[in-house]
Amino acid sequence: MKPAPLKPLTAKQVQRKAIRLAGAMRMLRDEMEALQEQCPHEHLVGKYKGNTGNWCPQDDSYWIDAHCKDCNKRWLIDSEDNAEEYRTFKGEKDYGY
Ligand SMILES: [Zn+2]
User: Fold this and answer.
1) pLDDT tens, residue by residue, 2-21
2) How are strands ordered across the β-sheet holding 92-93?
3) CA–CA separation, 80 vs 49, rounded Å?
4) Environment class of 48 (CB within 10 Å of its CB; exposed 0-12, middle 13-18, buried 19+)
5) Cα gap 3→5, rounded to integer Å
6) C-alpha of residue 73 to centroid of ligand 1, in Å
7) What's the confidence (pLDDT) of residue 1?
8) What's the gap in Å between 34 CA and the centre of ligand 1?
9) Which residues are within 8 A (CB) of 44 and not within 5 positions of it... i.e. 6 or more apart?
10) pTM
């Protein structure tokens, strides 16, 4: 037996459901952020990136696209703004594109 086709919803029903889903997504996002705060980030992968060859070499910049495989957090580590973190980054290096 085929499942019955879904009945179209009224605009009001869609509005109520959209509000409920948005609330649930906000709660899940907050929960994910809290989890990422607690994560020791032990399994990191870093893509080494750079913007080089600028007319002014002072404008060249280097950074790491860091990704934690445990909590799925992603962030940038700039070689100047976060020099210490950049220098001591212990994650696995990803040379892929
Ligand atoms: Zn993590």
Assistant:
1) 888 889 999 999 999 999 99
2) 74-78, 61-68, 44-51, 92-93
3) 13
4) middle
5) 6
6) 6
7) 75
8) 11
9) 66, 67, 68, 69, 89, 90, 91, 92
10) 0.75
pLDDT digits (tens, 9 = 90+) for 23-76: 999 999 999 999 999 999 999 999 999 998 888 888 899 999 999 999 999 999
Q: Please report, for the chain, the start and end positions of each structural domain, with discontinuous segments joined by +.
A: 10-39, 42-97
- How many angstroms separate the alpha carbon of residue 52 from the centre of ligand 1? 30
Q: What local confidence, expressed as pLDDT, does residue 57 receive? A: 86
CA-to-CA distance for 29 and 19, rounded, in angstroms?
Answer: 15
3-state secondary structure of 95: coil
- Encoded amino acid at 85, one letter: E
